[in-house]
What we know:
The protein has seven helices and 13 strands. The chain has helices spanning 26-35, 52-58, 89-105, 114-122, 148-151, 165-170, 229-247; strands spanning 5-9, 11-15, 19-23, 39-43, 61-64, 109-112, 126-128, 156-160, 173-176, 183-186, 191-197, 202-207, 216-217. The strands form three sheets. A nine-stranded mixed beta sheet has the order 4-1-5-6-13-12-11-8-9, with helices on both faces. Strands 2-3 form a two-stranded antiparallel sheet. The longest helix has 19 residues, at 229-247. The two termini are 21 Å apart. One of its GO terms (molecular function) is gamma-glutamyl-gamma-aminobutyrate hydrolase activity.
Amino acid sequence: MKRPIVGIIGNSYLLNDNYPTHAGGTMNSEAVAQVAGCLPLIVPTDPRFVTVDELLETCDGFLFTGGRPNVHPAEYGEDETEAHGEFDRCRDAITLPLIRACVDRGQPFFGICRGFQEVNVAMGGSLYPEIRELPGRMNHRMPPDGTLEEKFAIRHDVHFDKGGVFCDLLGESVRTNTLHGQGIKTSGPRVIIEGHADDGTPEAIVIKDAPGFTLSVQWHPEYQAAEDPVSRVLFTAFGDAVRAWAADRPA
């Protein structure tokens, strides 16, 4: 049986410091293929190579991945500072209108870390450049050293609003990893924050009145998605939504 296609948003990298590439983490493909049960397809997010319309017609759903570059603050009306870090304006040019189009069409997507932040910005929200500098906030960044297991280790709780989509799927709270520096400052008009860390940092969002799957999380559920019970539930639900879209895809 033909698997539906999930476009995995790729990131730009310099391989060996001089060879330009578009790439996606293997764990993203593993989660899409082995847990969601879909065909992973890495997208070169650059408007020179792809258009939003082409992606919408080619893919059945999208995984908006994490990545070191941040959404440029001009996208939410603020000036660039050193605290905002690195940027990828080509990715911004594809992902932000793609998110809005998916919301309008009911085409499913799942946002992770930077993808979570992209969803908020695409829907009219803004970001803090460095949440660990805010009073009362913990350091959500990954440890600078250590093994992959240590960097992706479970580090804090996320609490969900009763009656929300996340609570229905996962219960009132879960334990997650954390590997991000930025976070939601103001939520977009249709962005519903359903989950928070203990320090108040938004961790889980959905889009109000969207006809399709719009779940996004600030942590990284793609890590060991088949083994982690929280990740497995999220990627299974995403895969089910993508299959439903593919089966009843508009002409």
